[in-house]
């Protein structure tokens, strides 16, 4: 049943990879077993790849490039497209916009934002969801989430602001060591030249205002200088382009930023958490 579902759900990129792999293998006069041996996989795994019975993994694309690519980069070039197809449906259209954005202004409430997660934290969060994903699906999503980090070192450099609700820092995933590693990564990210990180304190409402009470948001300036807002909740998402609505969200974000701890105070809080490991 799972194999039939995989064949039916396979997207254009996965189908293209399967077709290319089969034709290039046959052109080289290799059997599936021989290609599998070159890649470090079984012949059955190659068969599953070519027939779409099993989704192609990121590692398989790397090995296909090494075994069949002949320096063309053809399978290497498919890695991003295949990763996009494996993303949750509600995130798929937003992912390319995020990667090419001139600026991202992010407010995260329930957990550390995906761009700032360690691999271990990401795996613990994804694996603990419901309905529980398969181990293979967990690894697909973790790989895709880690690949998004390319934006930090992209040229031209993008500006990234993150405001974390303190509750996201308090919520634990994995283990104490996983959290220590996560806090350390946040502290490192906060010191990047293109990153600003602030924490919205738990007691902000005691001062009579909490502009972040309505939930997380992502404000994006696209490569062509358009401004969008991305909202996601319970596996549903919406991309807002209406100028008046975007303006309202931008004003709300500015208010959240003003109510948050300043970057130095925020870094101090995160560094203390990293030292405590709790």
Compile the SSE list and pairings.
Elements: H1 2-9, H2 12-27, H3 32-39, H4 43-50, H5 58-68, H6 78-86, H7 89-92, H8 94-100, E1 103-108, H9 119-127, H10 135-147, E2 159-165, H11 166-170, H12 176-190, E3 195-200, E4 217-221, E5 227-233, E6 236-240, H13 243-259, H14 263-276
Parallel strand pairs: 1-2, 2-3
Antiparallel strand pairs: 1-4, 4-5, 5-6
Helix pairs in contact: 2-6, 3-4, 9-10, 12-14
Q: Structural class per helix/strand content?
A: alpha/beta
Q: Using the alpha-carbon principal axes, give the shape.
A: elongated
What's the tally of helices?
14
What is the N-to-C succession of helices and strands?
HHHHHHHHEHHEHHEEEEHH
Please summarize the sheet with the most strands: 6 strands, mixed
Using only C-alpha atoms, the radius of gyration works out to: 21 Å
Number of strands: 6
Q: Helical amount among residues, as a percent range?
A: 40-55%
The overall average pLDDT, rounded, is: 91
Unreliable parts: none
Strand order, largest beta sheet: 3-2-1-4-5-6
Distance between the termini: 43 Å
Strand coverage percent: 5-15%
């Amino acid at each position: 049943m799972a194999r039939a579902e995989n064949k039916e759900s396979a997207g254009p990129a996965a189908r293209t990879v399967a077709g290319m792999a089969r034709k290039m293998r046959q052109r080289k006069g290799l059997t599936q077993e021989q290609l599998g041996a070159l890649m470090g996989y079984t012949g059955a795994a190659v068969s599953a790849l070519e027939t779409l019975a099993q989704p192609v993994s990121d590692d398989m694309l790397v090995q296909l490039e090494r075994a069949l690519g002949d320096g063309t980069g053809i399978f290497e070039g498919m890695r991003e497209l295949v990763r996009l197809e494996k993303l949750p449906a509600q995130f798929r259209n937003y992912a390319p916009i995020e990667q090419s954005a001139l600026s991202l202004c992010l407010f995260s409430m329930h957990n550390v934002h995906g761009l700032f997660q360690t691999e271990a934290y990401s795996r613990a969060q994804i694996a603990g969801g419901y309905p529980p994903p398969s181990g293979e699906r967990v690894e697909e999503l973790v790989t895709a989430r880690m690949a998004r980090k390319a934006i930090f070192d992209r040229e031209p450099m993008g500006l990234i602001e993150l405001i974390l609700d303190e509750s996201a820092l308090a919520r634990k995933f994995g283990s104490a060591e996983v959290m220590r590693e996560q806090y350390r990564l946040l502290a490192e990210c906060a010191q990047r030249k293109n990153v600003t990180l602030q924490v919205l304190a738990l007691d902000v409402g005691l001062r009579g205002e909490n502009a972040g009470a309505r939930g997380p948001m992502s404000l994006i300036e696209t490569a062509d200088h358009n401004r969008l807002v991305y909202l996601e909740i319970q596996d549903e998402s919406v991309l807002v382009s209406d100028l008046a609505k975007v303006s309202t969200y931008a004003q709300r974000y500015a208010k959240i930023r003003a109510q948050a701890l300043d970057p130095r105070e925020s870094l101090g809080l995160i560094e203390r958490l990293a030292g405590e490991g709790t």
